[in-house]
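REQUEST ID: PR-0412
SUBMITTED BY: lab tech R.K.
PRIORITY: routine
TASK: structure prediction, single protein chain
INPUT:
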Amino acid sequence: MEKGKYAARFDQVLPALSDPVQSVLDGTPADKRGEITEIRLRCGQPVICTTADGPLFFPLSGGVCRLPRAGLLHAGREDLLETFRRICEYSVHTHEGEMAQGFVTMRGGHRAGICGRAVVRGGRVESLQDISAINIRIAHEVKGAADGLLAALTAGGALCIPQEGLLLAGPPGSGKTTLLRDLTRQLSSGVLGAPLRITVVDERGEIGAVWDGVPQNDLGPCTDILTGCPKALGIEMAVRSMSPELVVFDELGTTEETEAVTRCLHAGAAAVTTIHADSLAGLCRRPQAMELLSSGAIGQVAFLSAPGQAPVLYSREDVYAEMDRLADIGRAGSRCGAVLLRPAAHAHRTA
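STATUS: complete
OUTPUT:
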């Protein structure tokens, strides 16, 4: 997506801000508007916009600066409250389910993370009150983001994803979700042949960003979206009711999700998902990833190091080789000796 389109997304978010904050941010220079990925408001603190080159602060005298100093735009309590009301379009109760998870999906596919005082009943968060911070993540739908990955996946001939699942790994902010969206769109659109039936389990509304029943992001014509459902439950619901060839979801985290993906494979559907890892060695320390690899539910890993950079594709055996290398280092008594390997990952190799 060109910077001009990014800037248009920034402009789309501005009306959700309180009038004092909106009036200052509306003066953001044109060359910076397209670089902004987040708008952060913290009660009593400077308003900050996030870019790939670092934070932007906003002097009341105009312009932007990279370091905090006197005379910056600050967010007051009323700015937080009014911004929150506008994000919810003055209907807070309709977003209570999302609020209990700490976010609100906005029109246009943007997402606002919310911090405040949690109201907990029965061990579960029911709502958030006394809002203290808001982080608006500006939706960046980048069509074509998956071109390089698809080229790598098909380098040996036919696309292997319908037979073997794919794990997109990388550190936070590396572009995993952006890549996941475009990969879904292209596979659902038949870019590589017959379109695939895909169900997206979008627990936090970040992939399809469904608003009033309409996806705000283009995930292709053969994609069904289940929004707001816990991933482990949603995967099972999708396989039972939608007969997908692929089940797509974001941020593999729990053992329950890992088990659901394995059952998904046994039901004839493959999985494409993401996981946080700062390196291939870091991935080997994630038990969820190792369990999926050993079960055969995941056949390949695409590692992203930074937004816009081509992912590096690893086979299951590549990951096992890294595990062996880490084990050798551990036995040699280096600092990596604390690496915990799961014997099951070696005992049940399927590649």
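NOTES: The two ends are 37 Å apart (CA to CA).
REVIEWED BY: pending
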